[in-house]
Amino acid sequence: ELEERFEKSLQELEKLRAEEAGDALYGRLRNLALFAPLIVLLVGCVGLVYFQPGLIGIGPRSPPAWTVAQRMPHIRHSVQEWKGRGEQLEIGWRAVSGGLSNTNYAIGLFTASELEEGCAYCKGPPFDMSAMDSEVLERACEEKRMFIFRVAGDAGVSQRTSVYATAHLLDRGMESAIAELAHATGIAPAVYDYKAAAGFMLTEYVCRSSTLTPSDMLTRLPDILPLVHRLHNSVSWQSIRDHLTKTSTVIRENLVPYSPLNRAVARLAFVNSELAKLRLHGNIKEKQKAILRPILGEELENGWEDIDRSRAALPEFILELFEFMADVDKAVRRLEVEEDFVALHCDITPLNILSTEQRLWLVDYEYSGVGDRAYDLANYACMNELSEEKELTLLESYAAVDELFGREWATAREMVLARHSAMRQLTSFQEGMWGFTQHLSSSLAIDPDADWPPQDNFWDYGIHYLRDVYESTVASPSFSRQLLLLQRHPIAAATEESASE
Q1: What's the rounded Cα separation, in Å, for the pair 380 and 397?
Q2: Can you give the C-alpha Rg of the chain in angstroms?
Protein backbone atom coordinates (compact mmCIF):
# COMPACT_ATOMS: atom_id res chain seq x y z
CA GLU A 1 0.00 0.00 0.00
CA LEU A 2 2.87 2.37 0.87
CA GLU A 3 4.53 1.58 -2.44
CA GLU A 4 1.33 2.37 -4.34
CA ARG A 5 0.92 5.69 -2.51
CA PHE A 6 4.54 6.54 -3.20
CA GLU A 7 4.15 5.78 -6.92
CA LYS A 8 0.96 7.82 -7.07
CA SER A 9 2.66 10.76 -5.35
CA LEU A 10 5.54 10.59 -7.85
CA GLN A 11 3.08 10.63 -10.75
CA GLU A 12 1.25 13.66 -9.33
CA LEU A 13 4.57 15.40 -8.78
CA GLU A 14 5.68 14.77 -12.35
CA LYS A 15 2.30 16.07 -13.59
CA LEU A 16 2.68 19.27 -11.55
CA ARG A 17 6.20 19.77 -12.85
CA ALA A 18 5.00 19.37 -16.43
CA GLU A 19 2.21 21.92 -15.87
CA GLU A 20 4.62 24.39 -14.23
CA ALA A 21 7.07 23.97 -17.10
CA GLY A 22 4.27 24.66 -19.61
CA ASP A 23 3.16 27.76 -17.72
CA ALA A 24 6.74 28.99 -17.51
CA LEU A 25 7.29 28.46 -21.23
CA TYR A 26 4.08 30.32 -22.04
CA GLY A 27 5.18 33.18 -19.79
CA ARG A 28 8.58 33.41 -21.49
CA LEU A 29 7.06 33.41 -24.96
CA ARG A 30 4.57 36.11 -23.95
CA ASN A 31 7.36 38.31 -22.53
CA LEU A 32 9.46 37.73 -25.62
CA ALA A 33 6.58 38.86 -27.82
CA LEU A 34 6.15 42.03 -25.77
CA PHE A 35 9.85 42.94 -26.00
CA ALA A 36 10.41 41.73 -29.59
CA PRO A 37 10.26 45.23 -31.20
CA LEU A 38 12.81 46.58 -28.71
CA ILE A 39 15.12 43.60 -29.29
CA VAL A 40 14.92 44.03 -33.08
CA LEU A 41 15.72 47.75 -32.75
CA LEU A 42 18.69 47.05 -30.46
CA VAL A 43 20.12 44.36 -32.77
CA GLY A 44 19.75 46.70 -35.72
CA CYS A 45 21.65 49.50 -33.95
CA VAL A 46 24.46 47.13 -32.99
CA GLY A 47 24.68 45.89 -36.57
CA LEU A 48 24.92 49.43 -37.93
CA VAL A 49 27.68 50.37 -35.51
CA TYR A 50 29.59 47.19 -36.28
CA PHE A 51 29.40 47.23 -40.07
CA GLN A 52 29.40 50.93 -40.95
CA PRO A 53 32.92 52.44 -40.96
CA GLY A 54 33.10 55.85 -39.35
CA LEU A 55 29.63 55.72 -37.76
CA ILE A 56 29.78 57.50 -34.35
CA GLY A 57 33.54 57.48 -34.65
CA ILE A 58 33.96 53.71 -34.68
CA GLY A 59 35.16 51.61 -37.61
CA PRO A 60 34.91 47.87 -38.39
CA ARG A 61 35.83 45.87 -35.37
CA SER A 62 38.90 43.87 -34.55
CA PRO A 63 39.29 43.33 -30.77
CA PRO A 64 41.98 46.06 -30.42
CA ALA A 65 39.90 48.54 -32.43
CA TRP A 66 36.90 47.82 -30.23
CA THR A 67 38.96 48.28 -27.07
CA VAL A 68 40.44 51.58 -28.20
CA ALA A 69 37.12 52.86 -29.59
CA GLN A 70 35.31 51.91 -26.40
CA ARG A 71 37.70 54.10 -24.43
CA MET A 72 37.84 57.01 -26.85
CA PRO A 73 36.11 59.39 -24.38
CA HIS A 74 38.83 58.63 -21.81
CA ILE A 75 41.59 59.13 -24.37
CA ARG A 76 40.13 62.39 -25.70
CA HIS A 77 39.76 63.71 -22.15
CA SER A 78 43.36 62.70 -21.35
CA VAL A 79 44.82 64.68 -24.25
CA GLN A 80 42.95 67.93 -23.61
CA GLU A 81 46.17 69.94 -23.85
CA TRP A 82 46.32 69.23 -27.59
CA LYS A 83 42.91 70.77 -28.30
CA GLY A 84 42.55 74.36 -29.42
CA ARG A 85 45.78 74.46 -31.42
CA GLY A 86 44.03 75.75 -34.51
CA GLU A 87 43.78 72.34 -36.18
CA GLN A 88 41.63 69.30 -35.41
CA LEU A 89 43.83 66.39 -34.36
CA GLU A 90 42.72 62.87 -35.22
CA ILE A 91 43.53 59.90 -32.97
CA GLY A 92 45.33 56.83 -34.32
CA TRP A 93 46.31 53.59 -32.61
CA ARG A 94 48.30 50.39 -33.06
CA ALA A 95 48.83 47.39 -30.81
CA VAL A 96 52.14 47.17 -28.93
CA SER A 97 53.54 43.74 -28.09
CA GLY A 98 55.30 42.73 -24.89
CA GLY A 99 52.67 42.85 -22.14
CA LEU A 100 52.13 39.65 -20.16
CA SER A 101 49.47 41.03 -17.79
CA ASN A 102 48.00 43.86 -19.86
CA THR A 103 47.18 44.99 -23.37
CA ASN A 104 49.10 48.01 -24.63
CA TYR A 105 48.48 50.39 -27.52
CA ALA A 106 50.45 53.23 -29.03
CA ILE A 107 48.19 56.28 -29.43
CA GLY A 108 49.04 59.15 -31.77
CA LEU A 109 47.53 62.57 -32.54
CA PHE A 110 47.76 63.69 -36.17
CA THR A 111 46.67 66.66 -38.27
CA ALA A 112 44.61 66.28 -41.43
CA SER A 113 47.66 67.15 -43.54
CA GLU A 114 49.72 64.48 -41.77
CA LEU A 115 47.01 61.90 -42.42
CA GLU A 116 46.97 62.81 -46.09
CA GLU A 117 50.76 62.67 -46.22
CA GLY A 118 51.43 59.53 -44.21
CA CYS A 119 48.28 57.43 -44.16
CA ALA A 120 45.93 58.43 -46.97
CA TYR A 121 44.00 55.16 -46.84
CA CYS A 122 43.60 55.01 -43.06
CA LYS A 123 39.96 54.85 -41.96
CA GLY A 124 38.56 55.85 -38.61
CA PRO A 125 38.46 57.46 -36.19
CA PRO A 126 40.23 55.96 -34.41
CA PHE A 127 42.35 54.77 -37.34
CA ASP A 128 44.94 52.00 -37.31
CA MET A 129 48.28 53.77 -37.70
CA SER A 130 50.28 50.59 -38.36
CA ALA A 131 50.66 51.70 -42.00
CA MET A 132 51.53 55.29 -41.08
CA ASP A 133 54.66 56.74 -42.70
CA SER A 134 57.64 56.46 -40.34
CA GLU A 135 58.66 60.12 -40.79
CA VAL A 136 55.20 61.31 -39.73
CA LEU A 137 55.30 59.02 -36.69
CA GLU A 138 58.75 60.28 -35.80
CA ARG A 139 57.61 63.91 -35.99
CA ALA A 140 54.58 63.21 -33.81
CA CYS A 141 56.78 61.43 -31.28
CA GLU A 142 59.30 64.28 -31.09
CA GLU A 143 56.45 66.74 -30.54
CA LYS A 144 55.12 64.51 -27.73
CA ARG A 145 51.93 63.64 -29.59
CA MET A 146 52.47 59.91 -29.00
CA PHE A 147 51.32 57.99 -25.93
CA ILE A 148 51.10 54.49 -24.50
CA PHE A 149 47.57 53.43 -23.57
CA ARG A 150 47.66 50.55 -21.06
CA VAL A 151 44.51 48.45 -20.56
CA ALA A 152 44.51 46.14 -17.54
CA GLY A 153 44.06 42.47 -18.43
CA ASP A 154 42.74 41.16 -21.75
CA ALA A 155 41.88 43.21 -24.80
CA GLY A 156 38.28 41.97 -24.80
CA VAL A 157 35.25 44.16 -24.28
CA SER A 158 34.17 42.70 -20.93
CA GLN A 159 37.27 42.83 -18.77
CA ARG A 160 37.33 41.49 -15.24
CA THR A 161 39.60 44.28 -14.05
CA SER A 162 38.37 44.11 -10.44
CA VAL A 163 38.68 40.30 -10.37
CA TYR A 164 42.15 40.55 -11.88
CA ALA A 165 43.28 43.19 -9.37
CA THR A 166 41.87 41.17 -6.46
CA ALA A 167 43.48 37.92 -7.60
CA HIS A 168 46.89 39.57 -7.87
CA LEU A 169 46.39 41.79 -4.77
CA LEU A 170 47.05 44.90 -6.84
CA ASP A 171 46.71 48.44 -5.55
CA ARG A 172 45.95 50.67 -8.54
CA GLY A 173 46.28 53.82 -6.46
CA MET A 174 49.73 52.71 -5.33
CA GLU A 175 50.71 52.00 -8.94
CA SER A 176 49.69 55.49 -10.05
CA ALA A 177 51.45 57.17 -7.10
CA ILE A 178 54.76 55.35 -7.56
CA ALA A 179 54.68 55.75 -11.37
CA GLU A 180 54.19 59.51 -11.05
CA LEU A 181 56.82 59.86 -8.33
CA ALA A 182 59.24 57.74 -10.38
CA HIS A 183 58.73 60.13 -13.30
CA ALA A 184 59.49 63.05 -10.99
CA THR A 185 62.84 61.43 -10.18
CA GLY A 186 63.64 61.08 -13.89
CA ILE A 187 63.58 57.28 -14.24
CA ALA A 188 60.10 56.72 -15.74
CA PRO A 189 57.94 58.25 -18.50
CA ALA A 190 55.29 60.83 -17.60
CA VAL A 191 51.81 59.71 -16.52
CA TYR A 192 49.17 61.82 -18.30
CA ASP A 193 46.00 60.16 -17.05
CA TYR A 194 44.93 57.25 -14.93
CA LYS A 195 41.57 55.64 -14.16
CA ALA A 196 41.75 52.92 -11.51
CA ALA A 197 38.16 51.73 -11.98
CA ALA A 198 38.58 51.38 -15.75
CA GLY A 199 42.01 49.81 -15.32
CA PHE A 200 43.81 52.05 -17.80
CA MET A 201 46.77 54.41 -17.81
CA LEU A 202 47.95 56.89 -20.43
CA THR A 203 51.71 57.54 -20.34
CA GLU A 204 54.42 59.19 -22.37
CA TYR A 205 55.67 57.31 -25.45
CA VAL A 206 59.45 56.81 -25.37
CA CYS A 207 60.71 57.50 -28.90
CA ARG A 208 63.06 55.09 -30.66
CA SER A 209 63.14 52.66 -27.75
CA SER A 210 63.25 48.88 -27.38
CA THR A 211 63.02 46.49 -24.44
CA LEU A 212 66.10 44.76 -23.08
CA THR A 213 66.98 41.11 -23.67
CA PRO A 214 67.56 38.51 -20.91
CA SER A 215 71.34 38.74 -21.45
CA ASP A 216 71.18 42.53 -21.02
CA MET A 217 70.03 42.07 -17.43
CA LEU A 218 73.58 41.05 -16.54
CA THR A 219 75.76 42.80 -19.08
CA ARG A 220 74.02 46.15 -18.45
CA LEU A 221 73.82 45.79 -14.68
CA PRO A 222 75.89 49.00 -14.14
CA ASP A 223 73.23 50.91 -16.14
CA ILE A 224 70.18 49.23 -14.58
CA LEU A 225 71.03 49.37 -10.87
CA PRO A 226 71.24 53.19 -10.72
CA LEU A 227 67.58 53.30 -11.85
CA VAL A 228 66.57 50.90 -9.07
CA HIS A 229 68.72 52.78 -6.55
CA ARG A 230 67.18 56.12 -7.51
CA LEU A 231 63.67 54.68 -7.10
CA HIS A 232 64.58 53.39 -3.63
CA ASN A 233 66.24 56.59 -2.44
CA SER A 234 64.07 59.24 -4.07
CA VAL A 235 60.59 57.81 -3.44
CA SER A 236 60.05 57.36 0.30
CA TRP A 237 57.08 55.85 2.07
CA GLN A 238 56.12 59.29 3.34
CA SER A 239 56.15 60.81 -0.16
CA ILE A 240 53.80 58.02 -1.31
CA ARG A 241 51.49 58.70 1.63
CA ASP A 242 51.44 62.42 0.79
CA HIS A 243 50.77 61.71 -2.91
CA LEU A 244 47.90 59.33 -2.15
CA THR A 245 46.41 61.84 0.28
CA LYS A 246 46.34 64.49 -2.45
CA THR A 247 45.13 62.33 -5.32
CA SER A 248 42.91 59.66 -3.74
CA THR A 249 39.33 60.06 -2.58
CA VAL A 250 40.00 57.32 -0.02
CA ILE A 251 41.89 58.37 3.11
CA ARG A 252 44.55 55.77 3.83
CA GLU A 253 45.65 55.66 7.43
CA ASN A 254 47.81 52.59 6.89
CA LEU A 255 49.76 51.41 3.86
CA VAL A 256 50.23 47.65 3.82
CA PRO A 257 53.89 46.74 3.20
CA TYR A 258 54.75 44.57 0.22
CA SER A 259 54.51 40.86 1.00
CA PRO A 260 55.09 38.11 -1.60
CA LEU A 261 53.34 35.61 0.67
CA ASN A 262 50.18 37.74 0.92
CA ARG A 263 50.06 37.98 -2.87
CA ALA A 264 50.57 34.23 -3.16
CA VAL A 265 47.70 33.57 -0.72
CA ALA A 266 45.36 35.89 -2.68
CA ARG A 267 46.27 34.04 -5.86
CA LEU A 268 45.78 30.65 -4.20
CA ALA A 269 42.20 31.56 -3.25
CA PHE A 270 41.47 32.63 -6.83
CA VAL A 271 43.12 29.56 -8.37
CA ASN A 272 41.24 27.15 -6.11
CA SER A 273 37.89 28.74 -6.98
CA GLU A 274 38.63 28.64 -10.72
CA LEU A 275 39.79 25.03 -10.60
CA ALA A 276 36.61 24.10 -8.71
CA LYS A 277 34.56 25.51 -11.60
CA LEU A 278 36.57 23.45 -14.10
CA ARG A 279 35.84 20.28 -12.12
CA LEU A 280 32.06 20.78 -12.37
CA HIS A 281 30.15 18.57 -14.78
CA GLY A 282 28.91 20.03 -18.05
CA ASN A 283 30.00 20.57 -21.62
CA ILE A 284 33.61 21.64 -22.01
CA LYS A 285 34.01 24.73 -24.16
CA GLU A 286 37.01 25.47 -26.37
CA LYS A 287 38.39 28.00 -23.90
CA GLN A 288 38.21 25.41 -21.11
CA LYS A 289 40.02 22.89 -23.30
CA ALA A 290 42.92 25.31 -23.74
CA ILE A 291 43.05 25.80 -19.97
CA LEU A 292 42.81 22.10 -19.10
CA ARG A 293 45.44 20.78 -21.51
CA PRO A 294 48.55 21.88 -19.58
CA ILE A 295 46.91 21.21 -16.19
CA LEU A 296 46.08 17.59 -17.03
CA GLY A 297 49.37 17.14 -18.82
CA GLU A 298 47.90 15.36 -21.82
CA GLU A 299 47.15 16.09 -25.46
CA LEU A 300 43.37 15.81 -25.24
CA GLU A 301 42.02 16.33 -28.73
CA ASN A 302 39.31 13.65 -28.44
CA GLY A 303 37.21 12.14 -25.71
CA TRP A 304 36.72 15.33 -23.71
CA GLU A 305 33.49 14.09 -22.18
CA ASP A 306 35.28 11.05 -20.68
CA ILE A 307 38.20 12.81 -19.05
CA ASP A 308 38.67 12.84 -15.29
CA ARG A 309 38.32 16.52 -14.47
CA SER A 310 38.86 15.85 -10.77
CA ARG A 311 42.57 15.95 -11.65
CA ALA A 312 42.25 19.65 -12.48
CA ALA A 313 43.98 20.67 -9.27
CA LEU A 314 47.20 22.14 -7.93
CA PRO A 315 50.19 19.81 -7.51
CA GLU A 316 50.16 17.89 -4.21
CA PHE A 317 53.37 19.47 -2.92
CA ILE A 318 51.83 22.98 -2.92
CA LEU A 319 50.21 22.65 0.54
CA GLU A 320 53.46 21.55 2.16
CA LEU A 321 55.27 24.35 0.39
CA PHE A 322 52.74 26.94 1.58
CA GLU A 323 53.20 25.89 5.21
CA PHE A 324 56.98 26.06 4.90
CA MET A 325 56.96 29.45 3.16
CA ALA A 326 54.76 30.87 5.94
CA ASP A 327 57.66 30.21 8.34
CA VAL A 328 60.09 31.80 5.89
CA ASP A 329 57.90 34.91 5.60
CA LYS A 330 57.67 35.24 9.38
CA ALA A 331 61.46 34.99 9.73
CA VAL A 332 61.98 37.72 7.12
CA ARG A 333 59.32 40.11 8.39
CA ARG A 334 60.65 40.10 11.96
CA LEU A 335 63.83 41.77 10.65
CA GLU A 336 62.07 44.52 8.68
CA VAL A 337 62.45 48.13 9.84
CA GLU A 338 59.52 50.34 8.79
CA GLU A 339 61.62 53.52 8.84
CA ASP A 340 63.76 52.07 6.04
CA PHE A 341 60.85 51.17 3.75
CA VAL A 342 61.02 52.55 0.20
CA ALA A 343 59.13 52.31 -3.08
CA LEU A 344 59.58 48.93 -4.79
CA HIS A 345 59.13 48.05 -8.45
CA CYS A 346 58.58 44.31 -7.80
CA ASP A 347 58.72 43.30 -11.49
CA ILE A 348 62.21 44.02 -12.83
CA THR A 349 62.24 42.03 -16.07
CA PRO A 350 63.72 42.73 -19.54
CA LEU A 351 60.25 43.72 -20.77
CA ASN A 352 59.99 46.50 -18.19
CA ILE A 353 63.20 48.34 -19.08
CA LEU A 354 63.27 50.48 -22.21
CA SER A 355 66.54 51.38 -23.91
CA THR A 356 67.28 54.34 -26.17
CA GLU A 357 70.60 55.57 -27.54
CA GLN A 358 70.92 57.95 -24.60
CA ARG A 359 69.58 56.08 -21.56
CA LEU A 360 67.37 53.45 -19.88
CA TRP A 361 63.81 53.85 -18.54
CA LEU A 362 62.15 51.75 -15.82
CA VAL A 363 58.47 51.25 -16.76
CA ASP A 364 55.33 49.34 -15.70
CA TYR A 365 54.68 49.85 -11.97
CA GLU A 366 51.57 47.66 -11.83
CA TYR A 367 52.99 45.32 -9.18
CA SER A 368 54.83 48.03 -7.24
CA GLY A 369 54.61 48.43 -3.49
CA VAL A 370 56.35 49.70 -0.38
CA GLY A 371 58.80 47.69 1.71
CA ASP A 372 62.38 46.60 2.29
CA ARG A 373 64.60 47.55 -0.67
CA ALA A 374 66.18 44.10 -0.56
CA TYR A 375 62.93 42.71 -2.05
CA ASP A 376 63.72 44.36 -5.40
CA LEU A 377 67.14 42.66 -5.45
CA ALA A 378 65.44 39.34 -4.70
CA ASN A 379 62.93 40.08 -7.47
CA TYR A 380 65.77 40.88 -9.89
CA ALA A 381 67.48 37.57 -9.10
CA CYS A 382 64.22 35.62 -9.31
CA MET A 383 62.74 37.09 -12.50
CA ASN A 384 66.05 36.80 -14.37
CA GLU A 385 66.94 33.40 -12.83
CA LEU A 386 70.45 34.38 -11.79
CA SER A 387 72.96 31.75 -10.73
CA GLU A 388 74.60 32.01 -7.28
CA GLU A 389 77.68 33.59 -8.81
CA LYS A 390 75.70 36.19 -10.75
CA GLU A 391 73.50 36.78 -7.73
CA LEU A 392 76.60 37.67 -5.72
CA THR A 393 77.61 40.12 -8.46
CA LEU A 394 74.17 41.73 -8.21
CA LEU A 395 74.40 42.20 -4.42
CA GLU A 396 77.98 43.51 -4.55
CA SER A 397 77.07 45.96 -7.31
CA TYR A 398 74.08 47.31 -5.40
CA ALA A 399 76.12 47.57 -2.18
CA ALA A 400 78.51 49.82 -4.11
CA VAL A 401 75.76 52.35 -4.98
CA ASP A 402 73.43 52.16 -1.95
CA GLU A 403 74.76 53.44 1.39
CA LEU A 404 72.33 51.59 3.69
CA PHE A 405 72.65 48.28 1.88
CA GLY A 406 76.40 48.77 1.58
CA ARG A 407 76.71 49.11 5.37
CA GLU A 408 74.78 45.90 5.93
CA TRP A 409 76.84 44.12 3.29
CA ALA A 410 80.10 45.19 4.94
CA THR A 411 79.14 44.37 8.54
CA ALA A 412 76.69 41.43 8.34
CA ARG A 413 77.24 39.72 5.00
CA GLU A 414 76.14 36.26 6.15
CA MET A 415 72.87 37.65 7.46
CA VAL A 416 72.30 39.67 4.26
CA LEU A 417 72.86 36.55 2.14
CA ALA A 418 70.47 34.51 4.30
CA ARG A 419 67.78 37.20 4.09
CA HIS A 420 68.29 37.59 0.34
CA SER A 421 67.98 33.83 -0.18
CA ALA A 422 64.71 33.78 1.79
CA MET A 423 63.34 36.81 -0.07
CA ARG A 424 64.22 35.30 -3.44
CA GLN A 425 62.36 32.08 -2.61
CA LEU A 426 59.33 34.04 -1.38
CA THR A 427 59.39 36.05 -4.60
CA SER A 428 59.71 32.89 -6.72
CA PHE A 429 56.85 31.35 -4.75
CA GLN A 430 54.45 34.19 -5.46
CA GLU A 431 55.65 34.28 -9.08
CA GLY A 432 54.67 30.64 -9.49
CA MET A 433 51.20 31.38 -8.13
CA TRP A 434 51.05 34.36 -10.52
CA GLY A 435 51.57 31.94 -13.41
CA PHE A 436 48.62 29.77 -12.28
CA THR A 437 46.41 32.85 -11.80
CA GLN A 438 47.35 34.24 -15.19
CA HIS A 439 46.62 30.90 -16.87
CA LEU A 440 43.13 30.75 -15.36
CA SER A 441 42.15 34.42 -15.62
CA SER A 442 43.57 35.74 -18.87
CA SER A 443 43.43 34.88 -22.56
CA LEU A 444 46.76 36.66 -23.10
CA ALA A 445 49.37 34.14 -24.22
CA ILE A 446 53.14 33.92 -24.03
CA ASP A 447 54.68 35.13 -27.29
CA PRO A 448 56.44 32.07 -28.80
CA ASP A 449 58.94 34.36 -30.56
CA ALA A 450 59.87 36.33 -27.44
CA ASP A 451 63.15 35.79 -25.58
CA TRP A 452 61.37 35.74 -22.22
CA PRO A 453 59.78 33.83 -20.56
CA PRO A 454 60.98 30.48 -21.94
CA GLN A 455 57.80 28.47 -21.13
CA ASP A 456 55.00 27.83 -23.65
CA ASN A 457 52.10 28.65 -21.30
CA PHE A 458 51.51 30.25 -17.92
CA TRP A 459 50.61 26.99 -16.13
CA ASP A 460 53.99 25.48 -16.99
CA TYR A 461 55.54 28.83 -16.01
CA GLY A 462 54.00 28.45 -12.54
CA ILE A 463 55.04 24.79 -12.21
CA HIS A 464 58.60 25.71 -13.17
CA TYR A 465 58.90 28.30 -10.40
CA LEU A 466 57.19 26.27 -7.67
CA ARG A 467 59.18 23.10 -8.29
CA ASP A 468 62.35 25.16 -8.16
CA VAL A 469 61.25 26.74 -4.85
CA TYR A 470 60.43 23.33 -3.38
CA GLU A 471 63.84 21.94 -4.29
CA SER A 472 65.59 25.08 -3.02
CA THR A 473 63.76 25.28 0.33
CA VAL A 474 61.89 22.26 1.69
CA ALA A 475 64.36 19.80 0.15
CA SER A 476 67.49 21.88 0.84
CA PRO A 477 69.51 21.42 4.09
CA SER A 478 71.57 24.55 3.33
CA PHE A 479 68.42 26.70 3.13
CA SER A 480 67.23 25.28 6.46
CA ARG A 481 70.48 26.51 8.03
CA GLN A 482 69.96 29.97 6.57
CA LEU A 483 66.38 30.02 7.84
CA LEU A 484 67.57 29.08 11.32
CA LEU A 485 70.05 31.96 11.20
CA LEU A 486 67.23 34.40 10.42
CA GLN A 487 64.98 32.97 13.13
CA ARG A 488 67.70 33.24 15.80
CA HIS A 489 68.94 36.68 14.85
CA PRO A 490 68.56 39.01 17.88
CA ILE A 491 65.86 41.63 17.52
CA ALA A 492 64.01 44.04 19.79
CA ALA A 493 61.05 42.39 21.50
CA ALA A 494 58.60 45.10 20.42
CA THR A 495 59.56 44.69 16.79
CA GLU A 496 59.27 40.91 16.99
CA GLU A 497 55.81 41.18 18.59
CA SER A 498 54.69 43.53 15.81
CA ALA A 499 55.97 41.14 13.12
CA SER A 500 54.17 38.16 14.65
CA GLU A 501 50.90 40.13 14.62
Answers
A1: 13
A2: 27
